Amino acid sequence: MRSYYQTTPLTAMMAAQYEQDAKSQEKSIYDFMKKMGNIEFTAWMIQKHFPHYQITSIRRALHNLEHKAKLIVQTCFVNEGINNRPVGRFKAL
Asked: Would you state the torsion angle of the CA atoms of residues 15, 18, 24, 29, taken in this order, to the nearest 10 degrees?
């Protein structure tokens, strides 16, 4: 499963490093969610625990964990986003 999508010119070594970084982020996020048990999280809630991760990276990780790895599930949408926009809540399986 690919975790990093190269959209700019990179050397093969840089692309491999970014792929590894993305997989590491996914593992960290999944391990955190699994440790917390049956708690549901939005991307913004996860960012509070991982402030060094960009929100777009967290969203990508959640997408991959749900649709590719099948390790988490989206439970609902809540109006907690910027400008009260709906955002998904996720929990580990």
From this structure: -130
Distance CA 84, CA 69 (A): 29
Q: Which residues are within 8 A (CB) of 75 and not within 5 positions of it... i.e. 6 or more apart?
A: 40, 88, 89, 90, 91
Q: Is the CB of residue 42 less than 8 Å from the CB of residue 89? A: yes
Q: Could you give the residue ranges of the DSSP H alpha helices within 1-93?
A: 12-35, 43-49, 55-63
On whether the pTM is more than 0.90, the answer is no
CA dihedral 56, 88, 46, 32 (to 10 degrees): -120
Q: What is the pLDDT of residue 86?
A: 86
